[in-house]
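ok, trying the design again with the full structure, not the truncated one.
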């Protein structure tokens, strides 16, 4: 579970879903910090104040609505209005409260993840939960899917999944995906490596007192196979690693694709 959670609220339905999701993964001692930014390039939505020229009034209405939606599900420690651009304000508050999770809606991009959400996912130090456009309610977390491979961020995703399973009693499904088009030797080596990794993670889960996770190995496009795994298992949550940061593509390719198409809440974990 998470203890210091920052929720970026912009008035969109997905951002309110992000607030409800934050409450669902908050520990008993957790505090939620709600932030709304007076970013004129992407002004907050707040009915009936959607056309109100004063952006601070819009933010006040938006934050009050989000707090009301959370109700008594979790303790809201702070409602904050920040001026200027959204990304710097989110990252500054993340650092200030030492957040271990940042929750955001995917934005208003109709064909993919919004620019602010994508930037938060690649720039934040903490884990980032993204709820894509179209997710308006958050069910109880009963089934958790995890994309695993060798690497610090993917292993961080598995460890976070174990933490959440301990707090929610959810079942876990670990999914390792290897690429297609391998030679027979490469295919066998990838199979053995995935089997060894999954065995290690099952042992770690047992050491933490968890029931044995379901495991599977798939071959194909990683993002597509993980989406199929989510659909087949009817997962309520998917966790993946952020991947390797590169100068021109700081957010991993798989995580970036999942952020715009995952049918359930997605948590992207950094090392």
């Amino acid at each position: 579970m998470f203890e210091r959670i920052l929720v970026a609220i912009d008035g969109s339905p997905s951002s309110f879903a992000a607030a409800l999701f934050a409450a669902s993964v908050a520990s008993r001692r957790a505090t939620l910090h709600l932030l709304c930014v007076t970013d004129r390039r992407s002004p907050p939505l707040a009915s009936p104040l959607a056309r109100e020229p004063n952006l601070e009034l819009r933010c006040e209405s938006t934050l009050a609505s989000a707090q009301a939606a959370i109700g008594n599900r979790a303790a809201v420690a702070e409602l904050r209005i920040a001026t200027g651009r959204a990304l710097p304000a989110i990252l500054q508050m993340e650092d200030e409260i030492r957040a271990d999770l940042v929750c955001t809606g995917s934005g208003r991009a109709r064909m993919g993840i919004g620019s602010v959400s994508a930037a938060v996912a690649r720039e934040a130090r903490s884990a980032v939960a993204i709820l894509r456009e179209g997710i308006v309610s958050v069910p109880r977390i009963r089934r958790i899917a995890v994309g695993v491979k060798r690497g610090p961020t993917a292993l961080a995703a598995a460890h976070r999944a174990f933490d959440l399973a301990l707090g929610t009693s959810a079942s876990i499904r670990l999914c390792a995906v290897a690429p297609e088009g391998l030679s027979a030797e490469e295919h066998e080596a990838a199979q053995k490596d995935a089997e060894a990794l999954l065995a290690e993670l099952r042992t770690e889960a047992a050491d933490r007192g968890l029931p044995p996770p379901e495991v599977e190995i798939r071959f194909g496009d990683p993002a597509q196979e993980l989406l199929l795994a989510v659909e087949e298992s009817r997962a309520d949550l998917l966790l993946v690693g952020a991947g390797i940061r590169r100068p021109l593509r700081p957010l991993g390719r798989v995580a970036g694709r999942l952020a715009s198409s995952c049918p359930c809440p997605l948590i992207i974990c950094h090392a």
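Keeping the full-length input from now on. The chain has a mean pLDDT of 88.
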